[in-house]
Amino acid sequence: MSVPFRVAGERAVVLDCGPAAAGTAAAVRELCARLDIALGDVVPGAQSVLVVAATPFYLQRFLASLTKLGPPMVAAPSDVLVEIPVRYDGPDLGDVAAAAGLDVASVVARHCAAEYVAAFTGFAPGFAYLSGLDPALRLPRRSSPRARVPPGSVAIADAFSAVYPRASPGGWHLLGSTDAILFDASRESPALIAPGTRVRFVPLR
Amino acid sequence: MLEVVDGGLLTTVQDAGRPGLAHLGVPPSGFLDAPAARLANRLVGNHEDAGLLETTGSGPILRARGAAIVVAVTGAPAPVRVDGGMADPHASLLLRADQTLSVGRAASGLRSYVAVRGGLAVDPVLGSRSTDLLSGLGPPVVHAGQLLPVGDEIAGDVPALDGLAFPAIAAQPVITLVAGPWDDWFGAEALQSLASQAWLVDPASSRVGLRLAGTPLAPARSGELPPEGMVTGSLQVPTNGLPVLLLADHPTTGGYPVIAVALEGDLHHAAQAAPGSTIRFRLRADPARPRT
């Protein structure tokens, strides 16, 4: 049993591992540390993991060891749980409630009831796509993105929730805001939420 | 200390960037034309990956404040002047205290590199002094009035050469590609189209990516790609079919399929591809392409 992969240039491959990307990425790092395979980056995606070796030589060694990785790994629950305090005062609460056929209190309750897992990052440093959103809150992105979403905005789109680490354009539905610092380059762990991190939203009253 | 008299069109501090943090959404960043940047650093006796300046189109005017500085300019050929007098590119130059160095408009190519002995010592962010124009990490874009600190991390003596032959910037470079990871999203016809046309470099190109205009590449299938990690050099094809060659400040994950990836050793061609110029691609023959 081996993980199917696609070639991405001279020293990288994309492993097709389904939604178990964060767990597979952790397994890749563990395997490569054990076998002294020098890595560049290991980047979980929504359904895949990009593995960038330090050199083409190490990529060949990694591919030769791929059978040791086993079948795509369901994410082992991380022992890191981050609680994000949220003021549920976002401008899209009413629209989300109407689209979901719920009242605002139920939207808030459903958003905080779930425990999320950071599936992958992208878009901006520290921006994590959090899986685990209540299916009743699944909505496509806004038809017209905002030119500026304030930092700390707590948002949902499609099957994900997320927190905007800094001001940026954005098309997600804004449910609220937090004072938590999602990304700080001067911290030892710059990103508050890394792939595999468990997340809960706690309402501020 | 190096005083910035004029920042030029778009000048940034760059080093080897901050690879290894892509899983946190941090782009690799770093100098785009690595051979030229490393040569500039070697010419002043620095470690190859020391912080230096990367210009875009037209370079800065810099003054040595207080003390003499050894500098070198490489990359896109642009007129180099010390106090108004012509000086040589690809050579170590002594800038005496209060003398100015100017790097003019690139005659061909796009990016020149200005190294200073000891390296530029702006504060590193996540282990790198590179300005990342996508995420905003690293020092601000170089601007008039700024004082750039010069460090003391030297690797050795200034090499005893009197100038150096350096290959000219190719007028229409050919960049070699490895097919995949999503070549089958497009099929053989699109791959052939990719490798048979001269692609025009769009003015909207930046350190994030080279935007290319030409005959669009048609996908062989419909649907959307779940976001996945992407390497520098990826040729990403958005829904309009016009490929974007991802450069150092690229987003770490993307939602459009990558038809092919450029060889790292060819990326300096992309760094020097000015808007309005054309580039070509060729596909590397891969006899034993691993597939499972």
How is this fold's topology laid out?
The complex is a heterodimer of chains A (205) and B (292).
Chain A lengths: L4 E3 L4 E5 L4 H14 L4 E6 L3 E6 L2 H9 L16 E6 L6 H8 L3 H10 L2 E7 L1 E8 L14 E4 L3 E5 L2 E4 L4 E3 L2 E5 L20 E6 L2
Parallel strand pairs in A: 5-13
Antiparallel strand pairs in A: 1-2, 2-4, 3-4, 6-7, 6-13, 7-10, 8-11, 9-10, 9-12
Chain B lengths: L1 E5 L5 E3 L19 H10 L8 E3 L6 E4 L4 E7 L4 E3 L2 E3 L4 E4 L4 E4 L8 E5 L30 E2 L25 E6 L8 H9 L2 E3 L7 E5 L14 E2 L4 E3 L7 E3 L6 E2 L3 E5 L4 H5 L6 E6 L9
Parallel strand pairs in B: 12-20
Antiparallel strand pairs in B: 1-4, 1-11, 2-3, 3-10, 4-9, 5-8, 5-10, 6-7, 6-9, 12-19, 13-14, 13-20, 14-17, 15-18, 16-17, 16-19
Helical element count of chain A? Answer: 4
Can you tell me the residue ranges of chain A where pLDDT is under 50 for at least 5 consecutive residues?
A: none
Largest sheet of chain A: 7 strands, mixed
Q: Output mean pLDDT of chain B.
A: 95
Determine the number of helices of chain B (DSSP H or I, runs of at least 4 residues).
3
Radius of gyration of chain B: 20 Å
Low-confidence stretches of chain B: none
Largest interface (CB within 8 Å) is between: A-B, 44 and 38 residues
